[in-house]
Each structure stands twice: as C-alpha cells, then as structure tokens.
Amino acid sequence: MSAAKVGKSLLVANLALSLAAGVDRIGFPIPAPRRVLICQFELPVAQFVSRLALMRGVLGAAADQHLLVDTRATGHLLSAAQGLNHFVSAARAAAAEIIVLDPLYSTHDQDENDTRAMAALCQSLLRLRDASRAALVVVHHVRKSIGRHEIGSAFRGSSALHAVGDSYLLLTRPSPQLATIELRFQFRYAASQPPRLLQLDPHTLWFSSADKPPATVAPRRKVEKADVKQALADMGDQARYNQLRDQIMNTTECSKRTAQLAISEACQQGFIVQANGQYRLPL
Fold it and tell me: What letter would DSSP give residue 33?
C-alpha cells in the first residue's frame, strides 16, 4: 500500500514477475517459480501487457509459463456473488498460487469508511483465498495523513481491512526531492524486517536496492500565517476546516497537528475568519 503515484503498481508488477520466474530481483529470496495471476484495473489490458513486456526484457522468458493476466477482470466486483465467482474461476483456470488485485478499490462498490461493508468485503477476500487456495496480494491506498511508524493500520478506510492480512508492505517517498522510495514491513506472525530503500530504473521499470540512504533533508520551517492565507486563497477564499487543513498539509508538507495549530493561530490573530462552518479571508 502507498499514497497515489509513489510506484506501488510498478513494484507489485516487479514482484509478480520475480515470483513467476523464481528469481530474486528486488531483494526477496524466491526459492522456486510460482504461478501468478494478475487482476489489475487501472490500465487498459494492451497498455498493461506492454508494461510487462518492457519489464520482461530484464528476465527473458523465465516468467512466461507462470505469469498470467486476467484480461476480463474489469467490471467484476468481489462485493457481488457473480464477481467473486469470476475471480475464483479465473484463479482455478490459471492454477494460480498467487493472485494480485490492483487496486482494491476497483474490486468493490462499497463505502470504505463503513466498517460493516468493509468487513463483508474482507470476507469475500477470504472466500477467494480459500476457494482458490492461493495467496492474495492486495494493493491499496493509505490515508492522507499517517504516522511515521504506522504500517498495517495506515490503510485508507475502515480498520476492518487491517484485521485480515498476514503481511503488510508500506511504500513511501522519504522526500519529494528524491527519487528514492522506502519500503517498510509489518508481519502478523513473524518479526519485522528493517526498511529498504529502492530506486526505479526508468528504462527497465525495475526497482532495485538503493546504493545508499537518501541524504538528510532539512526540516521544513514552521507553517506561517501567510501559508494559511495562501492555502485559503488557492481554494477560492473560502473552505471548510478539513478542506483547509488538507490543503495546508499538501502545500507545506506538514503534519496534521501542525496544520491544525496553524489554522487555530491564524484565526486567533485575525488572519482568517471562521463563520457558519466556513473559513475565509477577512473582508
């Protein structure tokens, strides 16, 4: 899991190819090839296959007999009986040992903040796992603001999603100025591993271990009143509290708490005005 545009789909495709080839390409020991079925919903099939073909250039034909793509995955929902049956049938036809679902939100039409709905979705995932006898690799997004040490609990939406997984991998970018990304781990039944730094080769679309950790980035200055005013101006001079807070976090790369304090201080000092549930610039 990760925020948008960090590279999780590329990394999962790397992992799928490595598993299918039985080759350690990104630092995970893989003792033997595994049959992998990819169900992805973000790219047209032809574009996704073209991406895999580019990655395949590094491995040659090693993964060809074990990597399969569900070309009819789009439109089928795990939250519906017919959709679940499709994925079970596809997995059985592929004799899949591993099923990749990328991304999770495209496999259902439920409210991710509804605990009951997400608990039902988790049961569908478990039924797919049990019926196919395959391991599931599920790609999901994280909340907008997460703590430094959050991993499994960083899932966007209901905490029900955190209750059913065995292993969690969180992909983050330590700094927007760096191409390096960090992969962190949490395992339910095993000790965690230290974080790994990865870098992407744009020519092969493969991640590899970074030679050295990223340089230390100087901490950002305190969020100033001018930052709050600018964030509000960028939103049309008026916004609700959560909208303004998120805008400040995005534009200044600060924490949720820092944004909240900045709004409070700006209000107290008259830089912004709160009325009827809205924040605006003073007249």
Answer: -
Query: What average pLDDT does the segment 142-166 reach?
Result: 62
CA distance 239 to 232: 7
Amino acid identity of residue 236, one-letter, is: G
DSSP code, position 160: G
- CATH code: domain 8-209 is 3.40.50.300
- Distance (Å, whole) CA 135 – CA 8: 18
**What is the rounded CA–CA span in Å between residue 246 and residue 265?**
16
Give the model's pLDDT for residue 211: 56
Q: What is the pLDDT of residues 51-90, one digit of tens each?
A: 999 999 999 999 999 999 999 999 999 999 999 999 999 9
Residues recorded for the chain: 283
- pLDDT exceeds 50 at position 215: no
In angstroms, the CA 51 to CA 7 distance is 13
Cβ–Cβ < 8 Å for 186, 152: yes
Query: Is-cis flag, bond preceding 214, omega within 30?
Result: no
Q: How far is CA 277 from the centre of its chain?
A: 32
Contact 140, 156 (CB under 8 A): yes
Q: Where are the domains of the chain?
A: 8-209, 225-280
- Bridge partner residues of 187 (DSSP): 167
Backbone φ, ψ for residue 197 (5° rounding)? -95, 130
Close Cβ partners of 226 (under 8 Å, ≥ 6 residues apart): none
